[in-house]
Design brief:
By secondary structure, the chain is of the alpha+beta class. It has helices at residues 8-24, 32-43, 93-107, 121-129, and strands at 2-5, 51-54, 60-70, 75-84, 112-115. It has a single domain, classed as Gcn5-related N-acetyltransferase (GNAT) (Aminopeptidase), CATH 3.40.630.30. It has 4 helices and 5 strands. Strands 1-2-3-4-5 form a 5-stranded mixed sheet, sandwiched between helices. Helix 1 (8-24) crosses helix 2 (32-43). The longest helix is centred in the N-terminal third of the chain and has 17 residues, at 8-24. The mean pLDDT is 93.
Length: 147
């Protein structure tokens, strides 16, 4: 596996693969403009760290986006999203990518890695296998309204 920083140069291809994955596998309705904006917003956050994963054949297999967050007592990395693209699931690429992210953020001084996940058996199994745990001292809060 090869990992590179996500830059503007690869953004178009990442956006297209992101849309293909989410609109076919997750039943979403991303447009190019919305997907571009979502990814670009995270890429341009101060202290962002976004990577692309390539297999040994040079195929783009996934990407992640996130950013470092400074707290009073530690530096953390918030993994906003990790996506393994269509056609590359269930062969260990996600596990490899999580391990790579962890190595990189540790080398950059982060002591904590956090994320918000969909609460279903598939996602819980994946993240628990990688050593993540459900935080007991936090609750995800939200409020939604119709425009």
């Amino acid at each position: 596996m090869k990992y590179t920083e996500l830059t503007e140069k690869e953004l178009d291809e990442v956006v297209k693969k992101y849309i293909e994955y989410y609109n076919t596998v997750e039943d979403c309705c991303f447009t190019y403009e919305k997907a571009y904006k979502r990814i670009h917003q995270v890429m341009t956050i101060e202290d962002a760290m976004c990577q692309i994963q390539y297999d040994d054949n040079g195929s783009m297999t996934g990407f992640c986006m996130g950013y470092y967050k400074q707290f009073d007592d530690l530096l953390a990395y918030f993994l906003e999203e990790i996506v393994i693209f269509t056609g590359f699931h269930n062969i260990g690429y996600g596990s490899d990518f999580i391990a790579e992210i962890e190595d990189v953020v540790k080398k950059n001084g982060a002591e904590h890695l956090e994320l918000i996940s969909v609460n279903d058996a598939h996602h819980m199994h994946f993240y628990e296998k990688a050593g993540f745990y459900a935080a007991k001292n936090l609750s995800m809060m939200g409020k939604h309204w119709q425009l």
